[in-house]
């Protein structure tokens, strides 16, 4: 699962590179955050997930966060996301398979944290591209494995569309758009 983190970050960088000269202080889709704040949030999530994998806290997040300098360029903000994505991949790849770290939606293993990172990157890239008026859609090849890992009860359909649906961004035909959502990051016991 860890290699998907860098693939998702590459998607984000490719999608947003054409707009690095634009104003990112506009809303990111339907979020209350600006595009700039949303990109900073992604960097912090990736950093925090790496921290949880490395430190293995049992009952809380570590009291540390990644902050992007408010004067950073948009391109530098994307570099920060890339660094945090690599950090998560390194943490996941070097962790023992029985490593566990706390998350409010279920104590997770390294692959679970990688999957959470991929979801954050993909859905927030969608938010930012929407806010900037860019055409972009999450790749189904990246969406499908994170749906299986974090959203086992998700409806069937195109994985990218389903991912946007379960995260409250796009309604699926025949399904009401969720007004609140969460994933299940707990470790599943094999049958």
List keywords for this structure.
mainly alpha; Four Helix Bundle (Hemerythrin (Met), subunit A); 191 residues; isomerase; 6 helices; DinB/YfiT-like; Maleylpyruvate isomerase N-terminal domain-containing protein; isomerase activity
CATH architecture descriptor text = Up-down Bundle
Q: How would a crystallographer describe the biggest sheet?
A: none
Low-confidence stretches: none
| CATH topology annotation | Four Helix Bundle (Hemerythrin (Met), subunit A)
Contiguous helical run count: 6
Fourth-level CATH superfamily: dinb family like domain
User: H/E series, N to C?
Assistant: HHHHHH
Report the end-to-end length measured between terminal Cα atoms.
21 Å
Output the radius of gyration.
Answer: 16 Å
Number of strands: 0
Percent range for helical residues? Answer: 40-55%
Mean pLDDT: 95
Overall CATH class: Mainly Alpha
Estimate the global geometry from the Cα principal axes: globular
InterPro entries: DinB/YfiT-like, MDMPI_metal-binding
Pfam family, one: MDMPI_N
Keywords: Isomerase
Organism: Intrasporangium calvum
Give the gist of this structure.
With about 190 residues, the protein is an all-alpha fold.
Structure report:
The protein is mainly α. The chain has one domain: Four Helix Bundle (Hemerythrin (Met), subunit A), CATH 1.20.120. It contains 6 helices and no strands. The chain has helices spanning about 1-15, 35-55, 75-95, 110-130, 140-150, 160-165. Helix 1 (about 1-15) packs parallel to helix 4. The longest helix is centred in the middle third of the chain and has 23 residues, at about 110-130. The model has no long low-confidence stretch (mean pLDDT about 95).
